[in-house]
Please model this.
Amino acid sequence: MSDQLRYLQQEVSRLQDENRSLKGEVLSLREVIDSIGLLASAINEMDPNTEIMPLLGRLLASALAVIHAEDGSLLVLDEETGELVFVLSYGQVPQEVLAGVRIPSGKGIAGWVASHNRPTIVNNAASDDRFYAGVDTRFDFTTNSVLAVPIAANGRVMGVLEVLNKTSGAPFSETDQALLSLLCRFAGDVIQSVIRRDEVTGLSDVGQGGR
Model:
């Protein structure tokens, strides 16, 4: 084989590898653009004139759609006890059995997020010291990966939005965290407005509450 032919073969191989890499980047970019579109729609649908529970339901559904996660839950912080209380969930564990379950103050990944008012990604939950296995054990569920983000307004943490196990099996990424954090930032302001409105009218049933 001549040196020229060998060189041409190497170049063809290099270009094929480069093409595969570019295709992967384009696909990733398309996924991000799609997620941003879903995020924008979710934010536009947040209406401070709505009732609180339907608003929270739309928030959780939007989070799962944006992040492409299998399961998710929304927890409210009980300011009197410091516990997090499940109010909504989508996925393997039915909402009717999970709603009202409490996580002890400071326990679990969600508890850490609420205490520190910071999002976090845990892509191997069982190996993380913060992971609280009580819920998995109780409901025969397996948490592989977690992305949890605080819902806050004016520095006050009202709850935590937690998504679990991406549908693709891939780990959660920094992009996922940024998208969910943005959604929760807008949601926090809207939810605070709804809570204040309902406190004035005596209609709020979410309490001072939030895995």
